[in-house]
Structure formats: C-alpha cells, structure tokens
Amino acid sequence: MPLFRPAPKRQHSFLQDGVTSNGNGSNSSLIVGVDNGSQKSECAPGTTSPNRRTSTSDPAWTESLDHAMASLVLGSDNDAEACFVMGQNFLFGLNAAPVDERKAINFLKRAAFQVDGHVLAQAVLGFCYEFGLGVEADSGFAESLYQSAAMKGDGLAGARLSFLRRYGRPYVKINRVEAEEWIKRVNEMGAEAVKWLDAAANCFNSPDPAVSKAFAAANYALGVCYHDGIGVSQDGSKAVFYYKRAATGGEPRGKGILAYCYGEGFGVDKDEEFAFLLYYDAANEGELVSMYNLAHCYEEGIGVEKDLDEAVRWYKKSASLGSCYAQNSLGFMYEEGVGVDRDEQKAVYWYKLSAEQGYPWAQCNLGFCLQNGLGVDENEEMGSYWYQKAAIQGHSRAQHNLGHAYQYGVGVEKDEAMAVEWYRRSSSSGNAFALHSLGYCYQNGIGCEVDEEKAAKLYRESALYGHSPAQLSLGCCFRNGIGVEVNERQAFKWIRLSAKGGNDLAQNTLGHLYEDGIGIAKDIKKAVYWYRESADQGNAWAMTNLALVYLEGVPGVKRRVKESLRLLRAAAEKDHTRAQTKLAHCLMNGIGCTVDKEEAFEWYSQAAEGGSVAAVFALGQCYENGDGCSVDLHKAIEFYTRAAVCGDEKASDKLISLVANPSVLDEVFQNGYIAPAA
Prior knowledge:
Elements: E1 15-16, E2 19-20, H1 28-33, H2 59-73, H3 80-92, H4 101-112, H5 119-131, H6 139-150, H7 155-167, H8 176-189, H9 195-202, H10 213-228, H11 236-248, H12 252-264, H13 272-284, H14 288-300, H15 308-320, H16 324-336, H17 344-356, H18 360-372, H19 380-392, H20 396-408, H21 416-427, H22 432-444, H23 452-464, H24 468-480, H25 488-500, H26 504-516, H27 524-535, H28 540-552, H29 561-572, H30 577-589, H31 597-609, H32 613-625, H33 633-645, H34 649-659, H35 662-670
Antiparallel strand pairs: 1-2
Helix pairs in contact: 2-3, 3-4, 4-5, 5-6, 6-7, 7-8, 9-10, 10-11, 11-12, 12-13, 13-14, 14-15, 15-16, 16-17, 17-18, 18-19, 19-20, 20-21, 21-22, 22-23, 23-24, 24-25, 25-26, 26-27, 27-28, 28-29, 29-30, 30-31, 31-32, 32-33, 33-34
C-alpha cells in the first residue's frame, strides 16, 4: 500500500503562545478596551479582590520585611529566606520597597545559590530569566533553573518547565513526553503548585507602566495554567481574565494569547478581526509566537485580507528569531511554492532547524523529505529516524508513517508486528490513515491474526473521517463480503464517495460498476466519464478500460480507434500487461494502425514477462508462424506449454496438433520436450 502524504504538511493552527490547539495587535487603547476600563478593580471569579498596592501596614508583609531587613542589617546576608523576601519585594515593589528588578535579581541569586539553595528562589529566578525581568531574557538558563527547582518539588518550576518542554522556546527543545510527566507531577500537587503565581498575580493589579512587569508576567503564566488545566481545573473564562490583565500590564505574550482566545473563541466570543489586531500589536513588540500567528492570518486571510507576501515576511522574521513553528511553516512554503519560488532544498533547511528543536511536525516533514529524496539525498534510514523522533512525542502522522516503514522495511528492519503497534498508537488518536492501514493489516493478517470483521470496522471508522482510500476499501468489503454481508448498494455508495474525493482507483472501480450495473443501473456514459476521470490521473487500468470501450464501440459511445490506441500505448508504457497484450494484438492485425509485427512481438514479450497468459499463448503463435520473429517450433512448444499449464485450452489444442506432426515429434523427443498438457 502507498505511503500517504500527511496533509497539511505542518502545524497549521494558531499557537496560544506556543500552546497548540487544533487552531497582532492593536494599540494599547484597544487592549484596555477589552475590559471596558475595569482592569483596575476586577478580579477573577473565586479570587479575593486584589489590592492596588499592598500597604506597608499590612502585618504579614511588614513582618516579612522586618525580618528580612533585620537579617541583612545584622550582616546575615547569607540568610536565604531573607534574601528571597527582599528580592521579591524589589521585584514587585512591595512593602514600601521601590520596583528595582536589578536589585531583585541580586537578592534572588544570593538566595538561590546558597549551599542549600532556596528552592522557590531558584524557580522565581528562572521566571525572571524567562520573562526578562531585571536580566536579558534567556529561556535556556530559565529552563536549567526550573529543572533544578522542579526536581526538588517546586510547583512553579514544574508548571513552567512543563510549558517549555511542551511548546519550546528558542534554545529550549520540545519534549512532549517529558512535558506530560511534569504536568502529571504538577497536577498531583494541585493548587499548591501555582500558589506563588496566584499570589503574584493577585496581590497587585494596575496598568500603570511604572509597575513591575512581573505582575503582568505572573498574570499571563497563571492564565496559561487555567487554559491548560495545570495545577488547577481548566477554565477558559479565568484564563481570559488573567490574559487581559497581562495584556493591559504590557506583557506582549498576554496580548498574543488573548488574540488566540478571540481568534478561536476560547473563553470569549470569537472575533477574528480583533484577534488580528492584537496579534499585529504583539508581533510589532517582538513577540515571537504572535509573529507566527500573524503570518498565519495573512496566509489564510483570517481577520485580514489574504496576503502571501506579508505571510512569508512574518514567517521569516519569526523563523530567524528561532521559532520552530515558523521555521516549519516556512519550510512548507518553500516545499509547495506558496508565496515564494518553490525550493525543496530551502524547505529541508528550515524543516531541519525546526526538527532539531524538537517540533514533531517538522520532524515528520523532514522524515518524509529524507525518505523520498525531496531537496536532499534520499536516506531512508534517516527518514525513519525522524519519524521515530516525532512518533515518540505522540505525533499521529509520524506514528502512521513509522508503521508503514516497519511494514515494508523502509529504513528499518521489516517488522510487521511493530508496524501494527504503531498503526494502533496512531489510530487511537483518530488518524484516518492509520485506521485504514490497521484495517488492511487485519484483513490480510499482516503482523496480526486475520480478522475481517475488525478490518471492516476500521475501514468504516476511517471512511467516516472522509478518507477516500478507506471508503474504497469499505466499498470493496461490501462488494465481496469481507467482514460484512454482500451489499452491492452499499458497495456502490462507498466507492462513489471515494471516487468523488478524487481517488483514481475508486474512479476506475466506479466506472466498472456503471459499466456492469453493479449496485446501480447500467450507464455506459457514466462509466466512460469515471474511466476518463481516473485515466486523466494516470491510472493505467482506467486507460485500458476506456480504450477497450472506445475500441469495441458500444451503444451510446462513439467508436474512437485512434484514441483507443493512444490510451493503450500510454497504459502499456506503464507496464500494464493487459494494455500491452491488447496493443500488441492491434499492431499484429493492423487494427486502427499499420501492421507492425516486430513491435507487436516486443509488446507480447513484455506482457508475457508480466504474467499475461494471453501474451504467452500469442508468443507461441509468433514462433510457430514467424510473426515478428524467426520460426522456432521449439520456442513455440515452450510457450504453448506455459500457457497450457495455466489452463489455456487453445494452447493445449496447439500442443496436440504440433505433437501429432511426425516431423515435429522427432525434434521434440530429440530435444527432450514433453508437452505435459497434451
């Protein structure tokens, strides 16, 4: 069976700041307008109304501050807790401390890098490096800090590490298997895991740009937790609430993710035009994911007029800054020639950059290019390697293609049981290609026991997704009683659906159903129509069938001998043995053409090698009569014998007549030829 090309070739949906769903900005006044000016005092359902600024008279904060200051005044600047509290105060401007992110970083470093390191300080320091608070943003270093703290049980670190592993960032490789493990750990901790984020997001709220960016970043990160259900129950309205606060606080990621929500109708009424404006604003502030999503809007005409030049420009900008999503999409643009001149080598270049960052779609696309020699030297082993990389991360199309590789031994050692296992994994996520391939295995006992009923069920499931090969397979099951009762009407129904979906095999089969009146009344004109549709796609069977209709002439269809010969020759050149045999017959007898026995002999020879019994018999005649070759009775008997063994009665009759000839009989025994069918 063929390896079906995954389509679309890339993650083609929007990213919610990297948060993938099966799916820039405005000016700041538009952002503020989202909440109708209520940002300063509104609070998320189920939360305490936030204070505009924590008072220095607040006993809890005052006690913390007093302890920290006392520790430092007394010279105990190695007190990790005291350093952490001071760092937090300077980060958020709490307890009468001014916002001073650089001082905050100094104190957090002291706390984090003590001998016994303050675990939460490590996590908060990672947060600062991730969002560029008091330091230059460095996702790679943030990842290291998160990992250290998460391994010690810190919830904030675990939540953010799961995000980075799941969606990646420049210098942070995607690993969705590891991401799921961290999500599981965080969810086991429950609300305790996001306690710091909740406190940071709700202790203060103001759109005043003088306020620390940490509040906006915390609101964004807490929104992500509600969006994905990490440490808290998934809640779209709460996610949007926090995203709005992040956006009004000037966090570009907040604008970008809010745009996603409006574009997809997640937690808010869908508004693609407003989503585009938010993406545009965030992208122009340098927000990487919004650049990608903005490009996608331009490419598909979502919320804005379609503009491929702008799409390519933004994809390039995002890709050059390290976005694996944009790199993959740019690879697709070059592979297909969308908005750019087609260039498969550039496509592979961008796919590889993205794949090396762990993005499963790019890994799958790169694997396909390597296995098929698109823009790179063919390398089946490396193709399967990249399929496996993506498959392990749960990419269903890569899982299917890896199964195909194991089924046929493409780049890996053939292992049909392993093929079935990968087909099962892929089909569990509803992949129509895998459901069909798994059905094929059950029908034919490939890597599993034959189970025709299960095969038919899998074909049906795939067919209901609109997968045309499965629709054809299901139709054939109904026609031949494989796993289901014979039902010619159902056979016609499913084969017709497949044919309408553009499947050339189904189109040819549908032509046959119309020609012979199977499951539908005979209609030669419709038969010709569907044969033509299939033939135009290069289907050799359809070319031959159409040629025979034109050659023989039937009521309602005009005889077209020249077109028939053209079709027969086209099919013959595709190694179609029936077409080769029929073309040879026409050439031998001058049907619609000048007699050419030598060429006829050549086509009979090719057809015989392909297994055509009629061609084998014809070659016996050629050698007997010297048509297109020298007379050679020994050869004639050899070919008649081959045809007779296959059940050709005319060949048996020929053998009898030749053996009955005394002059021939002497030569037969002299040369050891015995006609077993005589």
